[in-house]
User: Which sequence fits this backbone?
């Protein structure tokens, strides 16, 4: 009978250890599930950002092509002696700039 009593505490210790191990495993499982969910959310967010980036990049490429076309047209006009302003418009703009400079200097 002495053997049974000495073995009983060992079983309770083992059961207690197994219970603690089970609780740790459950907590670890919860953490893993949480991290998987976060990972899924991050992947989804990354995909959205990549789509937005691609869209903006394509828009920027279109604008760059448009700008290059306008610049080429402007160079052609300048080579032909033309510009986006005719002579009268240039003179009027020059006069307005001179008037603005005079007003600024008068206030200083």
Assistant:
């Amino acid at each position: 009978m002495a053997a049974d009593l000495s073995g009983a505490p060992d079983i309770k210790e083992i059961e207690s250890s197994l219970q603690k191990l089970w609780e740790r495993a459950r907590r670890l499982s919860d953490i893993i599930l949480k991290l998987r969910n976060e990972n899924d959310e991050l992947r989804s967010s990354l995909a959205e950002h990549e789509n937005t980036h691609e869209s903006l990049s394509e828009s920027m490429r279109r604008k760059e092509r448009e700008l290059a076309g306008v610049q080429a047209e402007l160079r052609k006009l300048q080579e032909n002696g033309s510009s986006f302003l005719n002579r009268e418009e240039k003179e009027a703009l020059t006069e307005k700039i001179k008037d603005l400079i005079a007003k600024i200097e008068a206030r200083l």
Observations:
- DSSP finds two helices and no strands in the chain.
- The longest helix spans residues 2-79.
- Helices lie at 2-79, 87-107.
